[in-house]
């Protein structure tokens, strides 16, 4: 399950940040930006996150997913649009097929809150190993 590997990567990165911070005893919440084109099902990710957190510093932490809409830009006419799901990659402005995805593939830790209520430094994009 892809979502389990994402959940484990989030836990690893948050645990590393907590170790660098020093005196963190628990994590209250993790906010994660999830692009609609990232191939991650938020409900499955929440389920896997809860299971994977058992017995760790993150046990009981809330996972809050923040959706990021997919957006594309036409390289011919510079029109930008929401691609939706399934993604529409043909330009609605000129019909062009040469497009760049601008957003929607995101998978990034946006915020972490330690048990004492202080925010942790913002995270980098999640690096998942296959």
Please tell me about this protein's structure:
With 130 residues, this protein is α+β, with helices and mostly antiparallel strands. Helix 1 crosses helix 2. The chain is elongated, with a radius of gyration of 17 Å. The strands form 2 sheets. A 3-stranded mixed sheet has the order 2-1-6, covered by helices on one side. It has a 3-stranded antiparallel sheet with strand order 4-3-5, with no helix packed on it. Helices cover 25% and strands 28% of the residues. The termini are close together. The protein contains 2 helices and 6 strands.
List keywords for this structure.
elongated; three-stranded antiparallel beta sheet; three-stranded mixed beta sheet; 25% helix; alpha+beta
């Amino acid at each position: 399950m892809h979502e389990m590997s994402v959940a484990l990567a989030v836990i690893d990165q948050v645990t590393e940040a907590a170790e660098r911070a020093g005196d963190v005893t628990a994590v209250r919440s993790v906010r994660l930006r999830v692009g609609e084109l990232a191939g991650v099902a938020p409900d499955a990710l929440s389920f896997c996150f809860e299971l994977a957190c058992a017995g760790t510093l993150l046990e009981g932490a809330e996972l809050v997913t923040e959706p990021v809409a997919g957006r594309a830009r036409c390289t011919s006419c510079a029109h930008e649009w929401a691609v939706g799901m399934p993604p529409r990659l043909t330009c609605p402005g000129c019909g062009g097929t040469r497009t760049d995805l601008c957003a929607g593939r995101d998978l990034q830790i946006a915020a972490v809150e330690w048990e004492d209520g202080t925010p942790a430094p913002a995270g980098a994009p999640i690096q998942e190993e296959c």
